[in-house]
Amino acid sequence: MDTAFLAELDPRLVGVGLALGGLIVGALIAALLQRGRGSSEMAALNGRLAQMAEMQAAQQAQLAERLQVQERVVTRALEERLADLSKRVGDSLNDSSQRSHQTLSDLRERLAVIDKAQQNITELSTQVVGLQDILANKQARGAFGEIQLKDIVQTILPPSAYAFQVTVGEGRRADCLLKLPNPPGPIVIDAKFPLESYRALREAANDAERTLAARRFTADVRRHVQDIASKYIVPGETAESALMFLPSEAVYAELHANFEAVVRESYKARVWIVSPTTLMATLNTVRAVLKDVRMREQAGAIQAAVLDLLRDVERLDERVGKLQRHFEQAGEDVRQIRISTEKVAKRGERIEALQLGDEATEVPALAEVQKLRQ
Are 300 and 112 in contact (CB under 8 A)? Predict the structure, then answer.
């Protein structure tokens, strides 16, 4: 019998085989004794039988030892493989858990950014755009232009959208600068309109005085328009237009009603003449533009955060897929181990079912052993 094959068999199978060999030898001895041969043959036969018995006992001990060693090796290898598999599964679960925790932390941070941006949009949406502190005709006050301009701007625009007494161009100080994005860019508002000529026009006693006051008023307005155009329209720094603020609705109405030529010249110079009411409407438009710009900025931040969130979700899906494949591989390994265990159990049951007896059962027993080899 091949010793390599015997080394792979179960110790019980080897024991059964050795016992079967002993029965065969005993049957042979009994047959020889029944034939009644001579004493010399019996002595020789006894010697050979004793020698065969010793050799069989030695082989049995050697095979038993090899089988025990092989069993320990197989058991150790199986334990090491199971331990390695358990360690790999544990490491994989640990790694996946840490990555999942990190991904969830990133998701919470992204959601916090989105929530903050949403709050900013809500605050912007709830702000009331209205006209406040609409003042009546104040032409009798000396420096009312700058004060009224400051009140109107502060009432309508947020502090970040304007600045007072700002230097533009070559050291020229503007009364107010509206901080608009490009285009159109920052716009200067000038409130230094001279009211003396208008007062003279209103106080004229006759046609001659009225004509003289009208000429003076026209000259003052034209000169002021040209000064604003040359001082506060700076290419590359400010917008291509500027605003001339008239502190009185009466002055604005007089100018548009009786001095149309001056108004057309201001259009050509890109200097827009505004009164308190029209300035409020203009500033509300500016405020709407600024609000739209800020909402677009916040929308861009939300879009970027959502894109980052989608990328994080994709990474999480990939990692979950990897974890699923690890679980499937572990399940397959366990299934293969169960198959091997079932095979070993079935072979053991077949060995236990063998019938050991006389020569009539030797052939079926050997056939069963051959079947177990397969």
Answer: no
Query: Token digits for 82?
Result: 């199971």
Written as six digits, the tokens of 347 are: 């072979």
Measured from the Cβ of residue 12, the count of other Cβ atoms closer than 10 Å reads: 13
Mind giving me the DSSP string for 72-129? HHHHHHHHHHHHHHHHHHHHHHHHHHHHHHHHHHHHHHHHHHHHHHHHHHHHHHH---
Query: Bridge partners of 271?
Result: 242
pLDDT, one tens digit per residue, over 256-307 is: 888 888 888 888 888 988 888 888 888 888 888 888 777 777 777 777 888 8
Among residues 110, 225, 238, 122, which one has the least CA distance to residue 170? 238
Rg (CA), the chain: 54
The Cα–Cα gap between 232 and 273 comes to 14
Query: Which of 226, 225, 217 minimizes the C-alpha distance to 250?
Result: 217
3 state SS of 242: strand
- Report the C-alpha gap between 371 and 295 in whole angstroms: 83
Residue carrying the six token digits 């079935």: 346
210-267 confidence digits (pLDDT tens): 888 888 888 888 888 888 888 888 888 888 889 888 887 888 888 888 888 888 888 8
For the range 306-312, what are the long-range contacts, defined as Cβ-Cβ under 8 Å and sequence gap of 24 or more? 306/114, 308/110, 309/107, 309/110, 309/111, 309/114, 312/103, 312/106, 312/107, 312/110
Number of Cβ atoms within 10 Å of the Cβ of 322 = 14
Element (H, E) at 252: helix 249-258
pLDDT, one tens digit per residue, over 23-48 is 565 555 555 555 555 566 667 777 77
> pTM of the prediction?
0.42
Q: Could you tell me the two tokens for 143?
A: 């420096």
